[in-house]
Write the structure tokens for this entry.
Amino acid sequence: MVPTYTEDAKKRILQAAADQFKEKGYFQSTMDDIATRLGISKGAIYRYFDSKESLLSALYAGAPENLHSLFEAASEDPMTAAREVFNKMATKANANLFVDFLAEASMNSEFQKVLRDNIERFTGAMEDVLKEKNPKINPKEAEKLHDSLVTLGLVFNGLTCWLAIGVPETEARKVWSRSLELLLSPLVKKK
């Protein structure tokens, strides 16, 4: 098979799985549902992914790169960029999928590893973007930035859980903005 075809097929399957999981829930979705959504046989999916769990794992394994892309496309101002990215990612559908992932991770050591790796990669991706936008950061500030970003990651995950239980997006956005002000604004220099 042509490598670009293989990658394109994987991306299409992952997108269909994400859409299906967000719409119906991970635990209620089947491989047949995903195949039907794509208009292909279930066997075609199994050529790329050996289980529904491997689909969910692959979705989350690519999440840090998606975050980095969102930050790259966002505003030059780090605070505004962090708000823009949160507004794009913090939706009820994404929150529901995240909670399903957490539920699976509570019982699945492979998913636990993906989640731990993602926390590190999310932090690294955000650090890279903020350091690019603020190249004069010194080592002591870089350490504080890292700690603040880890904390913001935890806040983000908590707010995502809030969204899953029905807290309005407007309320979650307010808390996110306040968290950014408390944790990040002291470390981000104005140009």
Summary: The chain has two domains: 3-51, 62-187. The domain at 62-187 is CATH 1.10.357 (Tetracycline Repressor; domain 2).
